[in-house]
Amino acid sequence: MADPRIAHIELDEATIIWRNADIEQERRIAIFDLIEENSFKPVRAFAAGHGGPYRLRLSVEDGRLALIVADADAQPLESVILGLGRFRRPIRDYFAICESYYQAIRRATAQEIETIDMARRAVHNDAATMLLDKLEGKIDTDFATARRLFTLICVLHIKG
């Protein structure tokens, strides 16, 4: 029976140069939420009879996102490579607004925090929609999964 979801996710730790406690918390939450609930169906692997669940490894190589999909036994099924040029600005904007959000949590009013959080969600949602467009025809997924994957893509771009 098919089970098209991510059961395990791994980030290429060599890609991540630095991260602070706030970003590490975002990473942990995104991975936990992603494993708890996601929809993920790599089109070619699924068509070849591999119904999931899947293991996913994310890395950034030469400015491209590599999604390496394996079966539950870690046998490679396919790799999906996406250019990240269109994501540079959303990633930069997301980092900037997250930094404002983390600072606001420490010293701003509830109204200021809510305003910044709304802006953060808007950037995140726009980037998730962009990711869904880039994955079309390669990986079928839902909006919530794309949002969490975008968070992890951001973590891979931290340069310190």
Walk me through this protein's architecture.
The protein is α+β, with helices and mostly antiparallel strands and 160 residues long. The protein has one domain (6-156). It is built from five helices and six strands. It has helices at residues 21-36, 43-47, 88-107, 110-135, 143-156, and strands at residues 6-11, 40-42, 54-61, 64-71, 76-83, 139-141. Strands 1-3-4-5 form a four-stranded mixed β-sheet. It is elongated.
List the helices and strands and how they pair.
Blueprint: E1 6-11, H1 21-36, E2 40-42, H2 43-47, E3 54-61, E4 64-71, E5 76-83, H3 88-107, H4 110-135, E6 139-141, H5 143-156
Parallel strand pairs: 1-3
Antiparallel strand pairs: 2-6, 3-4, 4-5
Helix pairs in contact: 1-5, 3-4, 4-5
Short description:
With 160 residues, the chain is an alpha+beta fold.
Q: What's the number of domains?
A: 1
Order of the strands making up the biggest sheet: 1-3-4-5
Poorly predicted sequence stretches spanning 5 or more consecutive residues: none
Strand content: 15-25%
The overall pLDDT average reads: 91
Rg, nearest Å: 16 Å
Distance between the termini: 44 Å
Order of helices and strands: EHEHEEEHHEH
Helix content: 40-55%
The description of the largest β-sheet is: 4 strands, mixed
Helix count? 5
Structural class: alpha+beta
Q: How many beta-strand segments?
A: 6
Shape: elongated
